[in-house]
Amino acid sequence: MTASEALETEAKKAALLNAVKHEGKAEAGAVIGRLLGAHPELRQKSSGVRVLVSKVIDEVNAMSLACQEKVIQESWPEELAKEKPKAERGLPPLPNVDRYPKIVTRFSPNPDSVLHLGNARAVILSHDYARKYGGTFILRFEDTDPRLKKAALQYYDLIRADLKWLECSWDEEYYQSDRLELYYHCAEELIRKECAYICECESEDFKQLAESGRACPCRAITADENLARWKEMLGGEYEEGEAVLRVKTELDHPNPAVRDWPALRVIDAKKYPHPRVGSKYRVWPLYNMACGVDDHLMRISHIIRGKEHLTNMERQKYLYKYLGWQYPDAIHYGRLHVVGMDLSKSKMMRALDEGVYKDLSDPRLGTLMALRRRGITPQAIRGVVYEVGPRPVDATISWENLYAANRKIIDPIARRFFFIDKPVVASVSGVENSRMVEIPVHPDHPEMGTREITVDAKDGICRLLISREDLKIAKPGAVVRLIELFNLRVVQAGPDSVSAELHSETYAESKKVSAPLIHWLPEQRNCGVTVVMPTAERIDGLGEPALTNCHVDEVVQLVRFGFARVDATAQNLVAVYFAHQ
Ligand SMILES: [Zn+2]
């Protein structure tokens, strides 16, 4: 086998393994990352690798999942033993699975914003349960409030991107704004059965009556009269606020907010056009009507959502009773409180409008976009979600929990680079020759290769950069080891410079005198590095030239500073987002 054939085989293996992990679709970035990780020398020829990987991925993704698994089974059986589906570990069984011909779950966001860490729980649990039982996972856009919770076109796409990033692919997709006729149909049936009526009362008047358990005058009118009012409602004869279709409940229901709840109302379609269907409809369903009808029509078997929906379930159960439907099994999990992260969507969107944030990937936010930009991995988020699971008790997690989960994933694979934010020049005497230093890309993984830094010496003097922070260590008389370079003894240390002499060369010698290890850079040929911190503060500094070879999205470790995701690269410039230490 030639070297290029061997590489192609290796690319195919990586693509197949990645594909079976992602429901049959390999992802180019991951495959390229794996190849370059195993063959650092190929980083210089990464465009060739890209072409090869793209060809291999086309082949692999054209195969069915079963076929991909068969190839792995035949060629690399040892890999299948390694790749146990970890997603399924730890999820308690769903109740009443036998009652349904198929397990169907859904995630149903309002596309008026992007998803945040709290939403990830509903997405991941609903998706992973569907997969666990070989069922169907539905993405349903609940976009039926063009007035107060108005959808915007970009959020449909951004939510899809969030789901893909979480590795939660969906089998069916719906827009509620395409389904108004279905809600109208059910509304009419409810009216005919005298289970719903058109209420013309002022909302304040109705509220007062409901609170005291009394019926409003509209409740007693006949089904025929209600049907006539319904036609008028659809025909545009009521203005916004003049009529609402209410579903009958017990008037003495213990929760006044459940009593004769509103199901559809009139919205001024000219003033509040819908981003998808414009001004086509004036009568729009409220949340419980649309959600309740769709959960039935889409044959949802298990609803997995937060316990703030318990009252909504009580409302929707009236619909199910009147229309002769069976309510799905509903699992209501407790609140997830993340210390130091404000997950309020309304506050966030207001601050966005006010320009506090430039966009929803601002590192101060708890959106999935922001976490992604900072190099938090979807595996870490899944780990945290599995930790809290679908349990009904409230749970509290901290950023540190998320960071710890993420560190476990990225620490073994992140390439290491030197970065210094506040450089101080260190002149070291006694260095006879310029040299090229080869430093392992990862201290625990020699197979990841080395990076090179050229260090110049002139007239026995070598000028380097160290971090101002390290002046605390590099005090006169101290012996300090510059990682992978040599050991120096500090002669003088001023606020902006250090002079030192060569002490010895090897790590063993530094250990003898317990010299602390610090990182460093040559004085010349570094690249500019901007680090965007979680506070949105920007730190400008210098990094070793090899940083510019990183690809966007790669998570690296800036030695003794922390992990960061590469956000952009240009000639001699790299911008990264800080993840955590
Ligand atoms: Zn009324």
- First-last Cα distance: 44 Å
How many helices in DSSP terms?
17
Q: State which percent range the strand residues make up.
A: 15-25%
> Could you list the spans in which at least 5 consecutive residues all have pLDDT below 50?
84-88
Assembly type of the shown chains?
A: single chain
- Helical fraction equals 25-40%
Which structural category do the helix and sheet elements fall into?
Answer: alpha/beta
The count of β-strands is 28
Radius of gyration: 31 Å
What do you see in this structure?
With 581 residues, the chain is α/β, with parallel strands linked by helices. It is built from 17 helices and 28 strands. Helix 1 crosses helix 3 and helix 6 (117-132) packs across helix 15 (378-388). Mean pLDDT is 94; it is low at 84-88. The site of zinc ion has 7 residues, from loops.
